[in-house]
Write a structure and sequence with these properties.
Length: 145
Amino acid sequence: MKLSLYTPVAAPLLAVWEGFDEALFKKLSPPFPPVRLVRFDGSYTGDLVALELNFFLFKQTWISRIADQQETGDEIYFIDEGIKLPFFLAFWRHKHRLLRQKSGGTLIADEIEYRTPFLLTDYLMYPLLYAQFAYRQPIYKRIFS
C-alpha cells in the first residue's frame, strides 16, 4: 500500500535539511501512541532509529535503518526501512524527500510504502497512517516558516 503527503514550507532546502534532526523527530511524534526515542543516529545511509511505542497495555519496538540518502542541487532525500516492526506491520519503507521550490521554499514529501500481515488490514491502516503523517504538516510549517 502506498501513501504520500506533501507539505510546502517557506524555508530554503538546505535549512530544512539541517533541521531534520533528533529534535524535529521528537516534535513530529503524534500524541498516540506515545513514542520513546531509544536511538537516533541521524539520516544518512546506515544510520539507525529505534522507537518504543507505548499502547498502554503493551509496548512495541520499531527499528528502522536508513537504506539510502542522496543529495542533488534540487533534492535531498533519505529512505528509512523497517528492520524490526510492530506486529501490525509486515513491511515499511518511507522516503523523505526535500524538494527545492522556485519560490525559494521547500516541498517536504513523505512517500510511504507499507504492508500489514493481511490485505484487509492494509486498507484499515491507511486512514490511521494518513492521520499520523497529516499531524506532521502544521509542525513542519511552524518550524520551517
